[in-house]
Amino acid sequence: RSRMAEASLPRKRFYRQRAHANPLADHIFDYPVSPDRMDWAQCFDVPNPVVSFLDVGCGYGGLLVELSPMFPDKLMLGLEIRLKVSDYVRDRIIALRAQNPGQYQNIGLLRTNAMKYLPNYFRKGQLEKMFFLYPDPHFKTQKHKWRIINPTLLSEYAYVLGVGGLVYTITDVVDMHEWMVLHLAAHPLFERVPDAELDADPVVEKLYTSTEEGKKVYRNKAAGCNHGDGDVRVAVFRRVEASRKRPASE
Known about the structure:
Elements: H1 3-6, E1 51-56, H2 62-67, E2 75-80, H3 83-99, E3 107-111, H4 114-121, E4 127-133, H5 151-160, E5 161-171, H6 174-186, E6 190-192, H7 195-198, H8 212-223, E7 233-239
Parallel strand pairs: 1-2, 1-4, 2-3, 4-5
Antiparallel strand pairs: 5-7, 6-7
């Protein structure tokens, strides 16, 4: 095959999989016993890699691809639990690197379960940004324990996120938005970034349609068939020291 053929981008139709996976099921993953035992060579071909940005449930990798040239000196990792979708992202990154020599070396993909193994991969305070874009809302009350934002997991996110680091959330489901805001605001180690400050953050505009799910939300909105109400809501929270969290009334 020609080099161009080998570098062609993968086609999603060959990697289709169910939109959702049970994160509490007994998926089989290899994972390190501690961050010091993690071999990052499977994700990055750079010396001494240290991940700074983490996209939890990265889907088809759209946000990673968008942010890569914006932050060339930051290593970004996508986590995805679904096998075929993970394979797609890996193949996409390989093709982008082949098509653009010297570029996209700062993005990688890891298939794992973020609800179970996050501290096995990342040291305390290591991360600068975490992304939760259009997470599965798990509408049924008995499945709310599957939601990727909950009080127990927020403490893990606070552990791996450095003080001053940011958590970005976006959804078109009002109940999910309110759930995430409620739990993040209630946690002693997070405070909400005022909406007035978000315009100065170049990352925020990339949250809306960089992902496959985001594009689908806007397509469905135009067709009048969203599973949410069609309005997209963003909330960003900053990691703070417990003693420095401002009262909600401020």
